[in-house]
Specification:
- The protein has 306 residues and is of the alpha/beta class.
- It folds into two domains: 109 residues, Rossmann fold; 125 residues, Rossmann fold.
- It is built from eleven helices and ten strands.
- The strands form three sheets. A five-stranded parallel beta sheet has the order 5-4-6-7-10. A three-stranded parallel beta sheet has the order 2-1-3, sandwiched between helices.
- Helix 7 links the parallel strand 4 and strand 5.
- Helix 1 packs antiparallel against helix 11, helix 6 crosses helix 10 and helix 6 runs parallel beside helix 11.
Length: 306
C-alpha cells in the first residue's frame, strides 16, 4: 500500500466512467448548486465542482442567494429545480446560515434529484443497504478504501465527527454487511470523554471534525491508517490563506502506515462521486438500467487485486 493515499487516481477512474456513460447514452446531465452566502470552505468546494462539469459533458449551474436570504426563498428555489425536467441533480451547499431548518430543506429536495443524499428517503435506503444515493464524502472514503485495498472488516475504526453529512452516514456505511465494510465503529464527538485514548486504539482513524490539525502524532496508533476528511482555511506563516485538514500531516506521517493529504485526498474523490450521482440521476430519468456504483466498484477493485 502506498504511504500517501492520494485521491487523483480514484477520481480519474470514477470520472472516466461518468464521461463514458454520458457519451454512450447521449446524456445531458445538469445539476443546480444552491449556495446561501459565501462560506470559504464551501466556496472552495463549489468552484472545484463547476470546473469539473465541462470535462465530463455535464452542466453545473450555481445559484447564489444573499447571506440574508430567508428559508422560504431557498425552498422556492428548490421547488423550481424539482419541477424542471432538464435538471437532474440538486445540491444545497452547507453550512447554511443560522435560522435555517436543514431537515425541512433536505426533505423538500426530490429524492430522485438528491445527488448529495440528504433527503430522509435516501438516508433510509442507505440504512437498509438498499441505497440509491449515499452522501458524497462518505462514498469517497469508501471508494478510497476499495482502491487501496484497505479492508476494515473486524478492525477498530474510529470516526471523529457526527454530522449528518459525513460522520453518521459514514459510520452506517462501514457497518454494512458487504466487502470493505463490517468494521467495528466508534464515533467520537464534542461530548466524548477520553477522545485521545479512543483514537490511540484505532486501526483506522477517519477525521471529519472540522478543526485544523486537531489530530496530533500522540493521538494515533503506530501503523494506523489515517483518512482526513477535513478542509479548514487558515493562514500560513506569511499570512497567506491556505487549506489544511484535521490531521497534522507532517507530524503524523512517520508514525502512520498510510494517510491522506489535504488537499489532494478525499476532496477530489468527493467531486467525482457527486458527478457519478448526477449521471445516475440522468440515467434514471431516461429509464436506462445501469448502476454506476457497481461499475465504479468493479474498476476500483481491479486496482488492489493487481
Amino acid at each position: 500500500m502506498e504511504k500517501k493515499l492520494i485521491g487523483k487516481p480514484i477520481a480519474s477512474v470514477i470520472n472516466k466512467i461518468n464521461k463514458d456513460l454520458v457519451q454512450e447514452h447521449e446524456l445531458s446531465p445538469k445539476m443546480v448548486l444552491i449556495q446561501v452566502g459565501e462560506d470559504p470552505a464551501s466556496s472552495y468546494y463549489v468552484q472545484s465542482i463547476i470546473k469539473t462539469a465541462a470535462k465530463l459533458g455535464c452542466e453545473a449551474e450555481l445559484l447564489t442567494l444573499a447571506a440574508d436570504a430567508g428559508q422560504e426563498e431557498l425552498l422556492g428555489t428548490i421547488y423550481m429545480a424539482n419541477q424542471n425536467p432538464d435538471i437532474h441533480g440538486i445540491m444545497v451547499q452547507k453550512p447554511l446560515p443560522k435560522g435555517f431548518e436543514e431537515h425541512i430543506i433536505n426533505e423538500k429536495i426530490d429524492p430522485m434529484k438528491d445527488i448529495d443524499a440528504l433527503n430522509p428517503v435516501n438516508l433510509g435506503l442507505m440504512l437498509m443497504e438498499n441505497e440509491r444515493f449515499v452522501p458524497c464524502t462518505p462514498a469517497a472514503v469508501y471508494y478510497l478504501m476499495r482502491y487501496y485495498g484497505i479492508d476494515p472488516a473486524g478492525k477498530n475504526l474510529v470516526i471523529l465527527g457526527r454530522s449528518n453529512v459525513v460522520g453518521k452516514p459514514l459510520a452506517n456505511m462501514l457497518l454494512w454487511k458487504r466487502a470493505f465494510a463490517n468494521a467495528t465503529v466508534t464515533v467520537c464527538h464534542s461530548r466524548t470523554k477520553n477522545i485521545e485514548e479512543i483514537c490511540q486504539n484505532a486501526d483506522i482513524l477517519i477525521s471529519a471534525i472540522g478543526i485544523a490539525h486537531f489530530v496530533k502524532e500522540e493521538m494515533i496508533k503506530e501503523k494506523a491508517i489515517i483518512i482526513d476528511v477535513g478542509i479548514n482555511k487558515i493562514k500560513d506563516a506569511s499570512g497567506e490563506d491556505i487549506f489544511v485538514g484535521d490531521v497534522d500531516f507532517e507530524a503524523c506521517y512517520d508514525k502512520a502506515l498510510a494517510l491522506t493529504p489535504v488537499p489532494g485526498g478525499i476532496g477530489r474523490i468527493t467531486t467525482a462521486v457527486l458527478y457519478s450521482h448526477l449521471v445516475q440521476s440522468a440515467l434514471f430519468a431516461r429509464n436506462i438500467n445501469k448502476n454506476v456504483d457497481e461499475l465504479i466498484n468493479i474498476k476500483l477493485s481491479e486496482n488492489h487485486e493487481k
